[in-house]
Amino acid sequence: MKAYIRTNSAAAVAVLALCLGGFASAALAPGFDAALRSADRPAEEKERDSLRKPREVLEFVGIDAGMTVLEAYAGAGWYTEVLSAAVGPEGTVYSQNTARFAERFAETANARAARLDNVEVWNRELGDLGLDNAVDAAFTALNLHDAANNGGDAAGVAWLRGIYGALKPGGVFGFIDHVGVAGQDNTALHRIEKARVRRLLEQAGFIVEAESDVLMNPADDHTLNVRDESLGRSTDRMLIRARKPR
After folding, report:
1. What is the pTM of this model?
2. What is the three-class DSSP state of 239?
3. Is residue 33 over pLDDT 80?
4. What is the pLDDT of residue 101?
């Protein structure tokens, strides 16, 4: 894991805080590992754990037992399940999809929510959730690249602002996306550059605290579409922790 380093001495104290924050461990619910091993959890989802490293990811982000978490563009809900396990019975996960996403994923998402007592499915736009300053944490995986690549920076910032608005002051935001590099057609490849993500997060109002390399894959040279079968669902992925200022 690593934290971003500033280059001027006036920010030395801030650097130390970020470095320490990069290694912070969350207090996941005591039943987290058992929940991931549950016979009720689909076997094909368990098979992805070795690549997606749910414990390492959520500890880095800072998801604690009892939190209320918004998962933006949850899709079918692989991360919904692990977030549910992380916050435990005293927490809540809002699994959000747009109406368009819900057409593809509603059956699976609704069945998951019926099985997991602490999950609520919300099929509406981020800006229509009515969760102003209401959630402790937010999380999204593999989504911003489409909003920003198809609609430009303004669309990417607007998308992030929907998440920002739902967070309480001081709330944490865990962000995952496919790494893209300059000079590639990231729109066609469904990727996005790290530097651009950081810029968009900051424009949306977030403070970027730290970045982890836990989902890094050096075998991915960033030239292939993320859906290319040779990648085996194992793209090089950025994992960033950001925060809404208090």
Report:
1. 0.88
2. strand
3. yes
4. 87
